[in-house]
Amino acid sequence: MAQVLPSSGSIIVADWHRCKDSKEYFNKILHKKRRKNFGLLESPVMPPHVAVDTVHYKIFLSGKSGVGKTALAARLAGSNIPNMHYETTGIETTVVHWPVKLRENGRVFFFRLQLWDCGENALRRFDHLLPACKEQVDAVLFLFSFTDRTSFDDLSNQIAKWTGAPVGRVVKLVVGTKFDLFMHCDVAERDVTNFQETWSVPVLRVGGEVSDGLGDVAPLLNCLAEHLWHQDCVTAGSTRHHSQQETATVL
């Protein structure tokens, strides 16, 4: 059954980072106009009169070796993107903090996204790594490179591994990397459109060029936050419905 997806901007305020009232929140994830690096136990600190709740999510980056998983994690966190490609030898985690404003009631939340990146060869060699990545995961970003056709063709196999009862509710998004390398593009736009229609999974695009601006990562982070919040609302609704059914049965 195809998942029901929220339309872009229907749950959170899109492009909120451009609005005046967002500045005091986004300033907490910036230092000298560049992104602030947070450790695993660190978080943005707001003044006492501004109450902001933080919601925590675990995100797994899936994709063939060389598609840009480590580079995407660095880009989303505002860290330096490695110049040379290297195979991730085990599990690497990156923490991203992103403020979001809900459209319905104007509440602001900090989304704490812990990105899990694991090398393809390491996943093959060590059986315990994939179960560790899947444990209590909230979303999976399936990556392919616009310059590598085989990585795009492999998407259906990747998604199939994350479909079924044991996995539970998981947000699924596809990210196409190296979108700006037109001269080397190996994946046609019509193929991407057909894929979206077949799998009912949104496809987002990121380039290879580095930008310091929030606008570079805002579309992807906002889309991810919107789908995670929608999933939480759906899960809460079904849990409430289930408990009401149990109560009715007891009565």
From TrEMBL:
Molecular function terms from GO: GTP binding; GTPase activity
Localisation per UniProt entry: Cytoplasm, Cytoskeleton, Cilium basal body
Cross-referenced SUPFAM superfamilies: P-loop containing nucleoside triphosphate hydrolases
InterPro entries: P-loop_NTPase, RSG1, Small_GTPase
Pfam families named in the record: Ras
Main location per the UniProt record: cytoplasm
Keywords: Cell projection, Cilium, Cilium biogenesis/degradation, Cytoplasm, Cytoskeleton, Exocytosis, GTP-binding, Nucleotide-binding, Protein transport, Transport
Entry-linked Gene3D superfamilies: P-loop containing nucleotide triphosphate hydrolases
Entry keyword annotation includes GTP-binding: yes
GO BP annotations listed: cell projection organization; exocytosis; protein transport
Assigned protein family: Belongs to the small GTPase superfamily. Rab family.
PANTHER family assigned: CILIOGENESIS AND PLANAR POLARITY EFFECTOR 2
Protein name: Ciliogenesis and planar polarity effector 2
Organism per entry: Eleginops maclovinus
Organism ancestry: Eukaryota, Metazoa, Chordata, Craniata, Vertebrata
